[in-house]
Every structure is written in C-alpha cells, then in structure tokens.
Design a protein that fits this description.
Elements: H1 8-23, E1 27-28, E2 49-52, H2 59-62, E3 69-72, H3 78-85, E4 93-96, H4 101-108, E5 115-118
Parallel strand pairs: 2-3, 4-5
Antiparallel strand pairs: 1-2
Amino acid sequence: MVGPVISRAAQQAVFSKIYDALAKGAVDATPVNESFRGAPREGSYVPPTLLIGTTHDMDVMREETFGPVIPVSKVSSDEEAVRMMNDTEYGLTASVWTTDIARGQELIELLDAGTVFVNRCDYPSPVCLDVSTLTYDHG
C-alpha cells in the first residue's frame, strides 16, 4: 500500500489531473497490483497511476502533481524533450533517462528546473542530510 497524500483536497487535485488526461486521450497503463486495491475509505489515498499517450494540453503534463502519477509522452528529438520539460510554471525537478551519460549531462544543463538528474528521479544529497537523525537496523 502506498501512503495517503496530504489531504482530501490534495487527493481530489490528483484525481482531477488523472481524469483530465484520460478525457483528453491518455491511457491508464498502470499494471495490476493487488496491494494498491482496497485503500481505506477514510484516508486520502491515491493509487499509483501510469498514464501513457499524454500531451501538453493535459494538466498532468504542465502542472506539478503531488501524488503517485507518472505521465509519459513520446518525443521526436532531444530538442523537443527539452522544450516540453521547460514548459511548466514551476519546474521543481527534472530527470533525463539515457544510455549516453555524457549527452544526458549536456541536456540537463538546458533544463530550467530546481533539481535535475540523469538516470534517476530523486535521491537525498548527502550534503543536505543530517546524519545524526538517521537510524539503521543492521538486523
């Protein structure tokens, strides 16, 4: 089970983006996973959702979605990918996935985002961690 989003309003905002994308032609390609079924009714749970065939006229592609949603859009070139990735109001985080790491490094320099990654979507920076608060189970 994936944990809940912050509130019912946040839950509705995530669902709104999913429904908007589906109404505009995206396809829900989320694999069946029994652990995502049967979320408690009293919580603000959103099941993980994989959307394919998304376009930039969908809210889920142009706005930050603070929930477990992955919108996937095909592009025809690196330039188109960069243009689409920079076409957002906030641009908090971006990720480039490639087998050519050097080219990935070049592309992230073109992105207007607060944090950028190559071949990963997020990880805590050791520079920013307060290791005194971490605990480890060596079990």
